[in-house]
């Protein structure tokens, strides 16, 4: 279930085992993967090494990561890039044929490969979607959502019920179900995620008894485009800061100066907090990209076109930006093989938590995770040939919240699970949702409580979970409790 990068890679790698791939989106469009402006992090440059990539992943993740998973990811990254190229992805190269490498927050060097500049997600998804469409073992049914999981008498996955665009509900026997349903951003008041990233896959897995992990760790990207209306905000890629842009206030004063040794390229949680504080003090934030060299702009066609639609030329005007929910580090708890605690249920990509991202994902590690972990999971499932057991009972996530309750849940989540959190606001959000039967009874309300409860319980700050009422220190990085890795609180 899921037509983003992770789902497509599982489907391809499972050959020749027959796969039924359900997705909400049609083709590559409408997925968070296709919207990704960042690229794929891989230690392919001169002097770089997977160990340095892994070290940056751990530092960004506040060492809350699973170290083995991080090393596996970093080691597999160059091969993932090569595999995508072998399928037809054209990564951006210099005139001498070498890969162009960009830099993003938290990386100690330029390490990000792009395809079509800031349209990497789109380019890579086109190639993968074409490969899946041509794969004889995959039956791809777009426009479908997962409604319920069927469990056998001994409590393992035995089937799924899905709903198509026209509302039909079809039961299907299945011994293995892979959830690759993406993130939760659509539950919040500002997000870079598409509408489909509503957490419904996670909610269903939790309702069926799968364990969740690190659900409180939610990444806010500092630079969503602030001029858009509505809550789905386009991204202004961090790679622009890698190319020399900087964050400034309304007077043009640099916002990140003195905040962190890496300045504008500090890990994302640090930058998002700085901008959030500024905003709470009544200020506005801008990305000043006028310093980006003229020749570098060809790497940013998506940003140029978005800005043009709003009458902004970022070569001469500043871009208004605001933090927005971007990525969920937590999710369905899975082992290194993508297996959840519920037999027959597997998860991969953003809906899963293998521990690879720790408390804060390093930039451009998510497309990478989708490819590496998706292919590994597909390969593992290839050789399993169990017949599905009969379904004893069906589990769904619960009723859908009405529109008013959804608005309230969004409001409470956004207020409590922002870049800055406090026990008081977390408890208030939980009380409000629990006290409203229409909210508490809905699957969105139950999921919201599942996110809020561990955030309330985790009293110390770590990575993207930053408690302003933390009693000791402000963050843990490199295993040492410090004021957020040099950050000025
Ligand atoms: C970005 O381009 O700023 C986002 C990249 C990512 O989320 O890894």
Question: Keywords, please?
Answer:
489 residues; alpha+beta; FAD/NAD(P)-binding domain; Flavocytochrome C3, Chain A, domain 1; 3 domains; four-stranded antiparallel beta sheet; 20 strands; 17% strand; disordered C terminus
Q: What is the typical, i.e. mean, pLDDT?
A: 93
Strand order in space, largest sheet? 8-7-6-18
Broad CATH class of the largest domain = Alpha Beta
Name given to the CATH architecture of the largest domain: 3-Layer(bba) Sandwich
At the fourth level of CATH, the homologous superfamily of the largest domain is: FAD/NAD(P)-binding domain
Major sheet description: 4 strands, antiparallel
The overall number of domains is 3
Structural class of the secondary structure composition? alpha+beta
Total strand segments = 20
* Gyration radius, rounded: 21 Å
Shape: globular
Total number of helices: 14
Low-confidence stretches: 473-489
Proportion of beta-strand residues: 15-25%
Q: Which small compounds were modeled alongside the protein?
A: succinic acid
Q: What distance lies between the first and last C-alpha atoms, to the nearest angstrom?
A: 42 Å
What proportion of the residues is helical, as a percent range? 25-40%
Q: How is the CATH topology of the largest domain named?
A: FAD/NAD(P)-binding domain
């Amino acid at each position: 279930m899921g037509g983003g990068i992770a789902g497509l890679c599982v489907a391809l790698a499972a050959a020749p085992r027959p796969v039924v791939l359900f997705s909400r989106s049609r083709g590559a469009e409408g997925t968070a993967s296709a919207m990704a402006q960042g690229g794929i992090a891989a230690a392919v440059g001169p002097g770089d090494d997977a160990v340095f990539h892994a070290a940056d992943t751990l530092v960004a993740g506040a060492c809350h990561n699973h170290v083995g998973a991080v090393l596996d990811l970093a080691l597999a990254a160059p091969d993932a890039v090569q595999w995508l190229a072998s399928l037809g992805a054209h990564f951006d190269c210099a005139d001498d044929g070498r890969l162009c490498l960009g830099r993003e927050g938290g990386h100690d060097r330029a390490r990000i490969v792009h395809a079509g500049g800031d349209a990497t997600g789109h380019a890579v998804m086109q190639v993968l979607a074409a490969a899946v469409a041509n794969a004889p073992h995959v039956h791809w049914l777009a426009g479908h959502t997962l409604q319920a999981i069927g469990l056998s008498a001994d409590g393992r996955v035995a089937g799924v019920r899905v709903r198509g665009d026209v509302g039909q509900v079809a039961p299907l026997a299945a011994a293995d179900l892979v959830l690759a349903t993406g993130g939760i951003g659509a539950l919040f008041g500002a997000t870079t995620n598409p509408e489909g990233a509503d957490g419904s896959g996670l909610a269903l897995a939790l309702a069926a008894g799968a364990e969740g992990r690190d659900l409180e760790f939610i990444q806010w990207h500092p630079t969503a485009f602030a001029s858009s209306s509505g809550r789905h905000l386009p991204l202004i890629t961090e790679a622009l800061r890698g190319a020399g842009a900087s964050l400034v206030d309304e007077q043009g004063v640099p916002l990140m100066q003195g905040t962190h040794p890496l300045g504008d390229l500090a890990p994302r949680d640090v930058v998002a907090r700085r901008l959030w504080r500024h905003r709470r003090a009544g200020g506005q934030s801008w990305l000043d990209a006028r310093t980006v060299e003229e020749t570098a702009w060809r790497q940013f066609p998506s940003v140029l076109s978005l800005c043009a639609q709003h009458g902004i030329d970022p070569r001469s005007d500043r871009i208004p930006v605001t933090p927005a929910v971007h990525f969920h580090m937590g999710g369905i708890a899975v082992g290194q093989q993508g297996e959840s605690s519920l037999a027959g249920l597997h998860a991969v990509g953003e809906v899963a938590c293998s521990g690879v991202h720790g408390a804060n994902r390093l930039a451009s590690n998510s497309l990478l995770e989708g490819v590496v972990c998706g292919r590994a999971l597909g390969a593992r499932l290839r050789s399993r040939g169990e017949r599905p057991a009969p379904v004893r009972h069906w589990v769904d996530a619960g009723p859908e919240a009405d529109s008013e309750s959804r608005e309230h849940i969004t409001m409470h989540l956004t207020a409590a699970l922002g870049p800055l959190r406090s026990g008081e606001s977390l408890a208030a959000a939980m009380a409000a949702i629990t006290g409203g039967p229409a909210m508490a009874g809905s699957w969105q309300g139950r999921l919201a409580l599942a996110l809020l409860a561990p955030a309330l319980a985790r009293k110390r700050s770590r990575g993207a979970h930053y408690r302003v009422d933390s009693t000791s220190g402000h963050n843990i990085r490199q295993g040492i409790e410090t004021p957020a890795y040099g950050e000025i609180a």
